[in-house]
Write a structure and sequence with these properties.
Structural class: mainly beta
Number of domains: 1
CATH class: Mainly Beta
Radius of gyration: 18 Å
Shape: globular
Strand content: 25-35%
Largest sheet: 6 strands, antiparallel, barrel
Distance between the termini: 45 Å
CATH topology: Elongation Factor Tu (Ef-tu), domain 3
Strand order of the largest sheet: 2-3-8-7-4-9
CATH superfamily: YaeB-like
Length: about 160
């Protein structure tokens, strides 16, 4: 079982630098059935409970056309997450891995992403399935599921290549 603010065997926390303002604006809030990190699922599921995404003004007009997509990518701020672990032990077995090799919510900038299935839209509110965040989570952005798009152009001569 996960415990709040637990540091497991062999995990490593650091003193993170003071945050600087990147100009991030929350465009809405997510309503979900989970009020505690201990009960929140680790991954959203397509058959999970319906959650509500509320978009704030003046961003409601930005929703125009979103109902044409079956799936949307939801980006949100994991406002109750730790931000100081650089090595984590997700299985609590003493073996650790770097934070950037995990999908853990514990990150320097705790941005969560989920691919949600669109259920319906009414004005500035979306009903979706597939989220894994707490009730009242701040919303950063919405995008159509990137798997629905194909690259505009194939790689070109001169494009950055690993090892260049």
């Amino acid at each position: 079982m996960v415990r709040l603010n637990e540091i497991r065997e062999n995990e490593l926390a650091v003193n993170a630098p003071a945050p600087t303002d990147a100009g991030l604006v929350f465009i809405g809030r997510i309503r979900s059935p989970w009020t505690s990190r201990l009960e929140c699922p680790r991954q959203g599921r397509p058959d999970g409970p319906i959650c509500e995404i509320e978009i704030f003004e003046p961003w409601v007009a930005a929703l125009d056309g979103i109902e044409n997509f079956e799936r949307i990518e939801v980006l949100y701020w994991l406002h109750e997450s730790r931000r100081d672990l650089v090595r984590q032990s997700p299985a609590n077995d003493g073996a650790t891995r770097g934070t950037f090799s995990l999908r853990s919510p514990v990150r320097p900038n705790p941005i969560g992403t989920s691919i949600a299935t669109m259920v319906s839209r009414a004005g500035g509110k979306l009903l979706v399935r597939g989220l894994d965040c707490l009730d009242d989570t701040p919303l950063i952005d919405l995008k159509p599921d990137r798997a629905l798009f194909t690259p505009i152009a194939p790689p070109q001569p001169g494009d950055f290549q690993t090892g260049d």
